[in-house]
């Protein structure tokens, strides 16, 4: 059955269910969503069960949108909203999205926009036709979020055509032949970096992640040239699990080389990934290197991006449904669950995960409706990979701060901009607020300030306690006045030259470039100072070399001249801040996952750790396990 046949059947069913007084002007797929356009959206709103009944009957995600003819002009709608909403609500921005007939109302007091029992929202909807969505104004303005919303608005018509094309591809119908499922390792197997996987059925090809490996120039990108993947036009969809560069770094490259399909991810993952990718281009240019793609390719993938919330089950191919759930790793990071066929097979990929409640996030989801194969990370999967608790990490950080700052030293914390930096901020705020650490400025350099701003734009993705603190107690530790943004070369020079003790949290986390190198070059030879690693240091990186005891580091200087930095400062590693699960948490996850998988595949870890973790799972739980190399294909069913 083709798409037109499917739509014809759907129109017949909608006609039977919707009252004759409601004029339906069009029905169309937009990606996985079935959109019903009507001149009477308020009548759908009056019957709260109508959309639910349609979704159940059609077995599709159904969205009702006003027909473009009933939408007020943007200028008129803007004025009407401001007239209807009390000034005390403090509207800060209105973002109109013509492609979906929605207006995002950003306000400092969203409750006043909604009104008692939603009366103000209903008045807005009746008056202007647009569907209002209310969000709280982020306490730190994010340029990334603002620019993305404006860009998506500017390409609304083009994006609508893209989503129609995606929808028709999803519902094109499958081939009636033998069903099978295969998983191919394209990067990040028996190694950390360039994560990339291919899920393939008789009808479908889905790429999961497409990252870059900064620690090895010869093995920087995944194996995208394989016949199973190339040409990229074969792919039905790309799934992006989270916004670290070893997972998202080469997504724009796909569009450079011909991919024109959708990328599915959560809203924070989209925003953070764009921030990281644009910074990647900027750093490459500053270092005289040619980046693998340009900013136009970043905009192209944003144009094709389909965002999903946790728990939304969505058709992404004729025979595959996708559901995201929390992985606990960084903001918006997701476990991807694939339901294949009509109950034929179920695959779950954890990507990077943290099976523990952290300062920022709830633990990895471990409950699924069905599960046959689990693909799980093994970053700390070795038998001796036990990390301190969060409290032990806090105590260690407290001791380092007291020791170094009281002797007049400075602390450099190389950190990933996304996730790790915000946890360090929470710990530093608590230590200083409680008097457990001298009150010194905590400087944030690199992308950390903007990444933190994006965190404040998505508080619903934070853990329950922090969310409650922000929403109900009106307190956000990320906004403490101890945090100071380093926003220029001149300010960085001022911080470096100052004699005052301080803490600098800066990128990059593995010391593979970025602002951290300036602080290290200038402060590395002073034994009063300290360098504190709070994240994984991949093999081959400068961070790993320093951890292993190197005391002299050759550094490139201006004009091609090189120099040697003698390391006299204290070198510390605080492991408890990791966003990855340690061996104990990984084994507990396998123990507690529901239902138990028939097969477990390990990845995203050094060779010994992937093998050790897979062997231990098999011995303890009697589950079939694999620790494949890159380029292996495993038939799952």
3D structure, described in words:
- With 637 residues, the protein is of the alpha/beta class.
- The protein has four domains: 3-69, GMP Synthetase, Chain A, domain 3; 74-137, K homology (KH) domain (GMP Synthetase, Chain A, domain 3), CATH 3.30.300.20; 173-384 and 580-635, 4-Layer Sandwich (Metallo-beta-lactamase, Chain A); 390-577, 3-Layer(aba) Sandwich (Rossmann fold), CATH 3.40.50.10890.
- Helix content is 35%, strand content 22%.
- It is built from 21 helices and 28 strands.
- It has a seven-stranded mixed sheet.
- β7 (181-187) and β8 form a beta hairpin.
- α1 runs antiparallel to α3.
- The protein is globular, with a radius of gyration of 26 Å.
- The two termini are 25 Å apart.
- The mean pLDDT is 91.
Summarize this, please?
By secondary structure, the protein is α/β, with parallel strands linked by helices. The protein contains 21 helices and 28 strands.
| N→C terminal distance | 25 Å
Number of helical elements: 21
CATH H-level homologous superfamily name of the largest domain: Ribonuclease Z/Hydroxyacylglutathione hydrolase-like
User: In the CATH hierarchy, what is the class of the largest domain?
Assistant: Alpha Beta
What best-fitting shape do the alpha-carbon axes yield? globular
- Determine the structural class based on helices, strands and strand pairing: alpha/beta
> Which fold does the CATH topology of the largest domain refer to?
Metallo-beta-lactamase, Chain A
Strand content: 15-25%
In what order do the strands lie side by side in the largest sheet?
12-11-10-9-8-7-28
CATH architecture of the largest domain: 4-Layer Sandwich
Largest sheet: 7 strands, mixed
Question: In the residues, how many domains can be counted?
Answer: 4
Cα-atom radius of gyration = 26 Å
Overall pLDDT metric = 91
Low-confidence stretches: none
Share of helix among residues? 25-40%
Q: Tell me the number of strands.
A: 28
* Oligomeric form: single chain
